[in-house]
């Protein structure tokens, strides 16, 4: 349990099932998900220091006996939530939980975490309705600028958000490599391959992405500008993007993902920042 606690302290989430733990082990957990027979929730929330949060919740229920000094809170919890105890007190603990403030707080938290942030609000207002204006080439350049800005912003944002996870994974990898369980390449192939690596194209990574985006959206559009040139012909003559070769961009993007996955594994194998 000390090893698990140390793992949690570096920012990882650990889910365990426990059966009649000691007081020390039980109080090493931060939160408890308690279900009764049938899978209905009885308590989902923090345990608290010396199980104070858990004890306060159940002692507030009418008919539940108070915990004795020095008594194991996990044992007491199982006793007061048993089916026999529910029948004796005529109390439905799952219904009490559903009517509690703790339940409403958990539901609000789930709803808040499930709603994606409106990252596209900035670009949506900057380039609102621009796709309907194709009277000249400048409008197409503006659309391309919007795509470029969105790709760069998403790439930087995703790169920043993944850095803490990579830092934690590096610690895990050092520990596992010391046990000689598997090679660095196996570990690398087992990892969340970052999606933005698929955007890289030759020496200018964003180029393949813009190629695929612009070609897929406008490469087959036959509407004409006010100078008589169609959108598809202009994209092919000015940018060199051909709709028939859209699959090449897809292959290039996929190839870069494989390349960087290989470089990731190779780097883990060759570079070691640990000092003995």
UniProtKB/TrEMBL annotation:
Q: Where is the ABC-2 type transporter transmembrane domain?
A: 104-191
Q: Where in the cell is it found?
A: Membrane
Q: How does it sit in the membrane?
A: Multi-pass membrane protein
Q: Where does this protein chiefly localize?
A: membrane
Q: Which UniProt keywords apply?
A: Membrane, Transmembrane, Transmembrane helix
- GO terms assigned for molecular function: ABC-type transporter activity
Give a yes or no for keyword Transmembrane in this entry: yes
Superkingdom is Eukaryota
Q: Which InterPro entries match?
A: ABC2_TM
Q: Which residues cross the membrane?
A: 199-218, 245-271
GO cellular-component term (any): membrane
Under which name does UniProt file this protein? Answer: ABC-2 type transporter transmembrane domain-containing protein
């Amino acid at each position: 349990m000390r090893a698990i606690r140390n793992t949690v302290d570096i920012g990882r989430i650990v889910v365990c099932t426990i059966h009649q733990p000691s007081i020390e082990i039980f109080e090493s957990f931060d939160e408890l998900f308690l279900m009764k027979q049938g899978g209905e929730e009885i308590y989902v929330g923090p345990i608290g220091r010396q199980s104070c949060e858990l004890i306060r919740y159940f002692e507030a229920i009418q008919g539940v006996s108070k915990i004795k000094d020095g008594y194991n809170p996990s044992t007491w919890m199982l006793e007061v939530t048993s089916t026999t105890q529910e029948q004796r007190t005529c109390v439905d603990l799952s219904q009490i939980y559903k009517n509690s403030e703790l339940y409403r707080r958990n539901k609000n938290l789930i709803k808040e975490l499930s709603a994606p942030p409106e990252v596209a609000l900035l670009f949506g207002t900057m380039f609102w309705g621009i796709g309907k204006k194709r009277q000249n080439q400048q409008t197409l350049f503006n659309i391309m600028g919007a795509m470029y800005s969105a790709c760069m912003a998403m790439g930087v944002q995703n790169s920043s958000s993944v850095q803490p996870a990579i830092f934690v994974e590096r610690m895990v990898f050092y520990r596992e490599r010391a046990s000689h369980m598997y090679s660095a390449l196996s570990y690398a192939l087992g990892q969340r391959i970052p999606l933005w690596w698929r955007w890289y194209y030759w020496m200018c990574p964003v180029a393949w992405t813009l190629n695929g985006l612009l070609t897929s959206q406008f490469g087959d559009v036959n509407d004409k500008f006010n100078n008589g040139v169609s959108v598809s012909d202009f994209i092919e003559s000015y940018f060199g993007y051909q709709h028939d070769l859209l699959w090449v961009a897809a292959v290039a993007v996929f190839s870069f993902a494989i390349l960087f996955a290989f470089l990731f594994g190779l780097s883990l194998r060759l570079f070691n920042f640990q000092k003995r």
